[in-house]
Amino acid sequence: MDIGAPLRIIEIEPVSLPLPETLPEPERIPDTEPAEPG
Amino acid sequence: MGTIPAPLETFSASATDPILAWRTWTLAGSRDLGEMRLLPIAGDGKPWPVRDPARAACRRPPRHHIVSGFGCRCGLHATRAPDPVRRTRDPAVLGTVALWGRVIEHEHGYRGEFGYPQRLRLACYLCFWQWGVPGACEVVARRLGGRMVPLCGPHLELSLRYGFRVGRLLPAHHVEQALLSTYAVDVLRSVIPER
After folding, report:
1. Contacts with B, A 1-38, CB within 8 Å
2. Between A24 and B83, where is the model more confident?
3. Is the four-CA dihedral B93, B95, B100, B105 of positive or negative sign?
4. How high does pLDDT run on average in chain B?
5. Phi, psi values for residue B83, rounded to 5°
6. Are B79 and A9 a contacting pair at CB < 8 A?
7. What percent of chain B has pLDDT over 90?
8. 8 Å CB contact of A12 and B101
9. CA-based Rg of chain A, rounded to a whole angstrom?
């Protein structure tokens, strides 16, 4: 993989580590039947 | 043909946002897909850690020099655009990677001190090499030692016709899901750069 000649140095100190994106919580399924209307 | 800029060790900048770039990996996994690991195409062959940053190391002289060294080739390599990684040898996974720490910017890519994959997808290496797209992988050939080779349907047929020993065939969707789950990242949906 040829990335060519070096150009410059960049020092990057991320505010937070770019580790795995937080996976969305699975959609919660209510464990009780909704109350009947009325 | 453009001129190659002279290296300027003093030309440096600082930033807080990691650089997002492109790279490929090979892939190894256990039979039950419980253990999946990204491996570099070249270099020391050490697997990329799971849910922990990969950190570049260098054994070239001078010993204990700073990684990534401006005058060295060390560091986690990645390209600005996806097309140049087509020429990597037998890739199994294409993706984007976040790089940070000491990063050397090159004409066509970067060398980073730390890195972690951001989006991944399996790549049929023959489709990727020929057309620059990772292809719609249907199966993954798991070879001796756990090396995994994703293939699209037509290239699986071609491989079988020419006597390529494919080993055990696994559904590509299951392998990709196991890979994404292991590294806790999302699938790469497009090979068009996001920025």
Report:
1. 1-15, 17-21, 23
2. B83
3. positive
4. 88
5. -60, -45
6. no
7. 61
8. yes
9. 25
Residue closest to B15 by CA, chosen among B119, B77, B105: B105
Q: Is B107 exposed, middle or buried (0-12, 13-18, 19+ CB in 10 A)?
A: middle
Digit-coded pLDDT (tens) for B178-190: 999 999 999 998 8
**Alpha carbon of B166: minimum distance to chain A alpha carbons (Å):** 26
Dmax of chain A from CA atoms? 73
Q: Does B195 touch chain A (CB under 8 A)?
A: no
Cβ–Cβ below 8 Å for B13 and A18? no
Question: What pLDDT score does A17 carry?
Answer: 65
Contact call for B107 and A3, based on CB within 8 A? yes
Question: How far apart (Å, rounded) are the C-alpha atoms in residues B47 and B15?
Answer: 28
Q: Which residues contact B162 (CB under 8 A, 6 or more apart)?
A: none
Cα–Cα distance, B22 to B62 (Å, whole number): 29
CB of B101 within 8 Å of a chain A CB? The answer is yes
Contact A3 B108 (CB under 8 A): yes
Fill in the DSSP letter of residue A13.
Answer: -
Q: What's the Cα-to-Cα distance from B62 to each of B42, B71, B72, B167, rounded to whole Å? A: 21, 11, 10, 43
B194 touching A (Cβ < 8 Å): no
A-B CB pairs within 8 A amount to 119
Can you tell me which residue has the tokens 């392998």?
Answer: B175
Q: Do B17 and A17 touch (CB under 8 A)?
A: no
Q: Under DSSP, is residue B144 helix (H, G, I), strand (E, B) or coil?
A: helix
Q: Is the pTM of this model over 0.90?
A: no
